[in-house]
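Retry 2 of 3 after timeout on previous attempt. Resubmitting structure tokens to design endpoint.
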């Protein structure tokens, strides 16, 4: 009974932000891969239908999985620390989790757009060109923009965008989550 009245608080140094980040980041990335495959196999990844309600719902679900998963990772880390966590510790585990998700997503995007949906980027470029032509852009502007898009819309380009975008997004969201979930120990 004395254990319930006086819980043993583990040493804060024993908790590893990387272990939590790897566990939760891997789970979140796996869920995101499944969502991507379901979206692709169900036909909701058509570039011409990017604004369809189903595509927007899938995007919202993906966003919720990212944020919810990182919140769960930070909460698990705070629990491992004995229920208390500084802002910096919360930010660190959240950011590390985003780094893991971004790294796995980058590799997945490269494989996905290279081997599984190799025609998707071509379709996207065709749709972009059609949209510019339909908007009345002149041929010089279309050629210039298509040259830029052709360098970006490659498996390697999407891999780099996953890394950079995930890192920037992760830093911003981790700041918010770290601030919201910090919990200082009571003053003695």
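Retry 2 succeeded. Sequence:
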């Amino acid at each position: 009974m004395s254990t319930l009245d006086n819980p043993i608080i583990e040493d804060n140094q024993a908790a590893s932000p990387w272990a939590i980040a790897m566990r939760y980041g891997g789970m979140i990335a796996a869920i995101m891969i499944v969502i991507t495959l379901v979206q692709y196999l169900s036909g909701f990844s058509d570039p011409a239908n990017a604004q369809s309600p189903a595509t927007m719902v899938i995007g919202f679900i993906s966003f919720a999985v990212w944020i919810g998963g990182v919140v769960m990772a930070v909460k698990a880390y705070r629990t491992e620390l004995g229920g208390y966590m500084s802002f910096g510790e919360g930010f660190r585990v959240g950011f590390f989790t985003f780094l893991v998700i971004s790294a796995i997503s980058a590799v997945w995007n490269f494989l996905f757009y290279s081997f599984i949906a190799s025609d998707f980027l071509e379709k996207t470029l065709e749709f972009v060109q059609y949209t510019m032509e339909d908007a009345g852009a002149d041929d010089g502007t279309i050629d210039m923009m298509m040259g830029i898009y052709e360098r970006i819309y490659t498996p390697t380009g999407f891999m780099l965008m996953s890394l950079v975008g995930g890192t920037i997004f992760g830093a911003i969201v981790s700041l918010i989550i770290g601030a919201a979930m910090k919990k200082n120990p009571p003053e003695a």
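Attempt log closed. The radius of gyration is 21 Å.
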